[in-house]
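Subject: sequence -> structure tokens, single chain

Hey, anyone have a minute? Need the predicted structure for the following. Not urgent.
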Amino acid sequence: MYVGVDCGTQSTKVVLVDVDDGRVLGEASRPHRLDEGEGGRREQDPGEWIAALRGAFEAMLATTGIDPGAIRAIGVSGQQHGLVALDGAGQPVHPAKLWCDTETAPWNAALIERLGGEVGCLDRLGLVLQTGYTASKIAWLRDARPEAYERIESLLLPHDYLNFWLTGERVAEAGDASGTGYFDTRARRWRHDVLAEIAPELDPERVLPRLIESHEPAGIVRPELARELGLSDGVLVSSGGGDNMLGAIGTGNIRPGLVTLSLGTSGTICAHSPEPVVADSAMVANFCASHGGWLPLVCTMNVTSATTRIRELFGLDLASFGERVAAAPIGAEGVTLLPFFNGERVPMLPEANASLDGLTSVNTTPANLCRAVVEGATLGLRYGLDQFGHLAEGVREIRLIGGGSRSPVWRQMVADVTGSRVICPDIADAAALGAALQAAWCHRGGELADLCARLVHLDEASRAEPEPASVAAYREIYARYRHRLAARHGIH
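Reply:
Had a minute. Here:
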């Protein structure tokens, strides 16, 4: 039996799988709090991740009745880009700044200029720095919190930190490291010279974790922690990876021709490539995959985070919100919402705000506003898919994951907006499943594809086919969205 952990923005999930029987035995989750402030500050206390992991693990055991002594390995997926800077005692010197933090936008712009613009970034890193990557967070900490910066002994990502808590080892793998901004995604190695541009006082050999391969273990669970959790001695912890990389594994997206699209707090679109990717758009990140190969990826920052704001504004539960969305017509009777509540990464608008257009005394209804925020998030993902250019050619099926994928209305909207067949895996939290699969791969060896074939099952009841009339209607709605984007933000 193998455990997968997914530490996201809103909660930490745990899933238990039996590889031999090809079954998911149980799952549980526990929430954690997001601290938000002026200027785009979004941070979390890493201690809450540990508390949530413990709580979810115990709840999963309680509901399944499984003896934890039967668990052989654990894999950890984590939200990408977060900065967990530790002191010499292994304690955070400052709350973790998250992927959705836009407070560091000016530092990111300065770093891009210092590295020689987009061309210089591509030459050194294989991608262009974006606000949200770890690099600008370190630069911000250096200037804004020098007393904390001076205490730094380790620079970790969220999943690296949980691996450190589990094993005592400071290691990293190429997939998650790709989003730091000081890692060469083509050569799969740290760029010490780039870190020196960001943090000249920090010794890379001292502060950067040791790189391991995706199929290698990060270590074994510390004996005292194993006793606390009821685990046997010698339980392996796999390399783990970023949530997007492990989500790709959890949807079986480990070969060319598939696209995984996540309707989570943020939205992501990724596809597998056996070679490094040079995309037509700088917004497509040439990330490494956490199973070998590469995972070109686009990320938008406002998906269920945006829909939740409008849903809570009207005091609606999920079912009532879905009914309002379904009740409004395609296009929300002319209402367009650009849902950039958290700024935006794709398009590159880190300091943008949300905006509503097209309101009249007739169309200003709760149903239209609910529909407009879901359409705005989905059209933003369509914009992201457009950035893939030739990489998305020939894609006929999208594997949909994340909380929003549970909505039949939203699934159909994605199919109609993209003109592609949509289907969901049985397990909506593909990152936790992917982490468990990677743990099994690390422990058992063999082919990851065989494990995916055994455990990644598609839910035929979730299938949505594009409807020609709706596809045609959304072409016009998408043109309206692009027009508003150009008028408001100069994005063409």
